[in-house]
HIT family hydrolase, diadenosine tetraphosphate hydrolase
Amino acid sequence: MTTSGTDNKQPFMTETIFSKIIRREIPADIVYEDNLCLAFRDVNPQAPVHVLVIPKEPVAKLSDAESNHHALMGHLLLTVKRVAEQLELKNGYRVVINCGEDGGQTVNHLHLHILAGRSLGWPPG
């Protein structure tokens, strides 16, 4: 993440593959969309069902979320629930948010993983 030269309190993200998906510059298997977020199938699934839920607003990682993102964060979680219902994940699912390099985040755009379709072990990773 970088910051603007005029106001270091206003972060903005660099271009990511997710921002290109939001703008439809590259294809994705989209399963849900509204004015705040987008959900699509992961191209490298780690479970039989692996969907990513991303905000359309540029938030690089969870630790960058501010108090003005309160409604957006709640909306993302409720979208996970909606997608799980839509995909009929009746046996359960796991929601994962990786934050930062050590947390396993590989794309610098906040995203929630929905993993399902088999029994998921613990600990993960």
